[in-house]
Amino acid sequence: MITVDWKPNRFSPVPIQKQIEQFIKEKIVNGEWTIGTKLPSQRALAQAFDVNRSTVVAALDELTAAGLLAGNTGGGTRVINTTWSLLASVSPTNWNANVELGIHPPNLPTIQEINHAEFRSGIIRLGTGELSPSLLPASEQMQQLFARQAARPIPLGYQEAKGDSFLREQIVQRLKKEGIATSPDSVLIVSGALQALQLIAIGLLKKGSTVLLENPSYLHSLHVFQSAGMKLQGVPMDPDGLQAELLPAYQKQFKGAILYSIPTFHNPTGNVMPAKRREELLRVCDEQSLPIIEDDVYRDLWLDERPPCPIKAGDKNGNVLYLGSMSKSVSPGLRIGWLVGPQPVIERLADIKMQIDYGASSLSQWAAGEWIASGAYDQRLAVIREQLRVRRACMLNALERNCRDLASWDYPTGGFYVWLRMHEAIPMKTLFDRALSAGILLNPGHLYDRQEFGALRLSYAYASLEELQQGIAALADIIRSLGATGRT
Amino acid sequence: MITVDWKPNRFSPVPIQKQIEQFIKEKIVNGEWTIGTKLPSQRALAQAFDVNRSTVVAALDELTAAGLLAGNTGGGTRVINTTWSLLASVSPTNWNANVELGIHPPNLPTIQEINHAEFRSGIIRLGTGELSPSLLPASEQMQQLFARQAARPIPLGYQEAKGDSFLREQIVQRLKKEGIATSPDSVLIVSGALQALQLIAIGLLKKGSTVLLENPSYLHSLHVFQSAGMKLQGVPMDPDGLQAELLPAYQKQFKGAILYSIPTFHNPTGNVMPAKRREELLRVCDEQSLPIIEDDVYRDLWLDERPPCPIKAGDKNGNVLYLGSMSKSVSPGLRIGWLVGPQPVIERLADIKMQIDYGASSLSQWAAGEWIASGAYDQRLAVIREQLRVRRACMLNALERNCRDLASWDYPTGGFYVWLRMHEAIPMKTLFDRALSAGILLNPGHLYDRQEFGALRLSYAYASLEELQQGIAALADIIRSLGATGRT
Ligand SMILES: Cc1ncc(COP(=O)(O)O)c(C=O)c1O
Ligand SMILES: Cc1ncc(COP(=O)(O)O)c(C=O)c1O
């Protein structure tokens, strides 16, 4: 479905309806809207153009009469001719068939809806897993970074396959403090941790392999492994995280090729795996010859005390691939993450990265390196932690006031998330839609566990304090209106 | 195969051999070199460590005696135990089997060799398709861009799926001057033009599809379509480029799903398709319902006169996907390219881009937008063109002086390349190896056409003027030494 963000000019002498006709005709003439393109509904067009629906109907009628558009019985309108195909008998490509052919599936419908709604103004984003714009570095800080005559010139050519060596060195130094001993040879810079998962999917696993992972998990909301022909198999969690003792049985039944885990400030539950469980998990995986992807992008966002050492810190056999990112602690726009693992694996994935995009932005790599080396990274972290503590308190307060009878939740000790478990199952799709009509964007639990219809992922990182309070009060009302009676 | 870039410290009191043993042991203990990892040859290690081969042999013997390494009859050495697996009976992951399992094939061996050799110092890169570092903007220029308080703040959050709207608007304005009418809705910002090809491969084409393309072509040196399960089928070129009149027959036989073409300053031949052939190609493709990918990354690098309008400019049916990039005209490190096409196609590919890396670096997108809007882009182009003219003259002179009797070539009117066609076939692999031993890195023709063993892609963009002269003189000697007699 195409989107429209143009409006007729009310001050123009050309009548509104004519302007709309011209706008649509131009899209068709330019080849932007090809034959087969489905137009948004009349209602959606009226809303986008900010005009009465009758004006839209009149304009569409004109273009239909001209042979460019056709309506169908379901009320949809499609482009059926271009001005040129009317003149000559050429056969333009049916892109819309192609669009459905490709190998890679589209995003989950709910995710697509979320992606769109995020750019609507005035929406309260109660589930968004990003730092609020107010928590990102100011533009001026980034400018200063560049303005300060850095010792290292800004590289502008194609980069080494593994990425900027200065940045890799900085990462090695930071990881050392977390107990991970490695060298820049075994670090690959990626365009965000998401890309590391993409590379592992296409570079290390066979088609038809199974990836074991926590249930629920962030990974369930993505297609990265499935689109490469792999299956996901959830493993239950308890309050200490993934239940390591179940792994041998799961391995026996599902023969996982790799295990994906977020042991620290888990997305979506906020859970932290204690040191003991980490050791157990590593031991069981070693015994089962099951390699681990440890996704540790939230590590630096502890709010009360440092989390236990990464699983990777105890890994003496190179069984763990370790992922980090600048996205959650500095800026997602940089698109800088890293992957640490055995050198032959890193070199294999570096070769593939060169084949798919010739490496990450050298500007971003340079900025990330300077950001860490200059100390700005740690300074920002202190600011962000302080703010996240205030936000966490605000959300927990609002939940306490509004939702005690409707749901339960745990106290998150870091990261962004509160996993809200309803006391009673409620129709999640209706909840999502009603909340959206009320201007509240939710991340329903089934994004993270297909079977989960009684939970929501809340995030205190994005919405403002006022929005958090307002949003949660309104959310509680909507849940109640859906028949949840509340426990007494 | 792993690479090593460490050297023992000659000033340390620890004997060199012990340092080498410790270095290797640490790699194994850290899990960077896992069980099964194949070490570089003794000769290669001796070269990397800058020591005698006997020192390397002694160190490897020690580690073999300790049970960590084992040699095989072929003379190769592998890691067979970690210090930990010697202690406990754990079974570490055999990553090296995984490394061979993945879906995505490794780069072509010659390309891997080239990628490595590029980072050797003192090498003359006679084929490299990049601007020389001296033609990239100075670090200061990039710093000034950031320092100048720009009207637009630097965005640091996750970005809109299609990319920064200011940059898309800049691109639309530039394309207008080239005769392409489009709007920002139909433009997708990608992390380099290479990624656009990746997105088309996984987002628009069915497995088993055939991609038609020029023979030779840059695309033959990549795996982007093949790794997504597609086949490439070359179509012959004449001096006017791809032979459009052959397409119906090729279509009949191979049923191409799409045609990939580089009509302007073709890589590797430097060829420019005249306006008439462009019209014919578009007409034939329209008749055959064969969509076109027009890769136009070299357009701005004309040296004598503006090239004909893009094929896209004549496209009234939305049959053409158009690719551009900042890599060849400003900086490849930015990793910024664009894809222009029908809106439903663009939105489909934008959705997939979000799924594979959440969009291009916001820093790079911001810088690219400012670069164009501020006029710096056009100023740089003028400088680059001037320099490329000098370089072109230098290379053609050297060829004239050294190679007249050995090969023929055309005069390139823009871009980077001279396609050197030998009068006699010569053993290309031997030529490549001998040249490399003499410090000259070549791009052999078979990278661009598997059947081509009598051509080389030369580039005047990368090596210095002195290197160009020296390199070509040395190249001619090597060709002669391989038995090419020279025509008289
Ligand atoms: C657990 C986890 N891993 C990876 C990512 C992706 O991070 P990046 O922006 O570095 O690709 C996220 C972001 O939501 C996440 O929650
Ligand atoms: C014809 C052609 N297309 C695309 C590319 C890749 O460009 P980018 O750096 O924008 O990915 C190149 C670079 O060599 C090229 O020659």
Automatic annotation (TrEMBL), chains A, B:
Keyword ATP-binding on entry: no
Pfam families assigned to the protein according to its UniProt record, in alphabetical order: Aminotran_1_2, GntR
Keyword field contains DNA-binding: yes
SMART domains membership: HTH_GNTR
Protein name as catalogued: PLP-dependent aminotransferase family protein
Origin superkingdom: Bacteria
Keywords: Aminotransferase, DNA-binding, Pyridoxal phosphate, Transcription, Transcription regulation, Transferase
Cofactors named for this entry: pyridoxal 5'-phosphate
Family: In the C-terminal section; belongs to the class-I pyridoxal-phosphate-dependent aminotransferase family.
Stretches assigned to the HTH gntR-type domain: 14-82
GO molecular function, one term: DNA binding
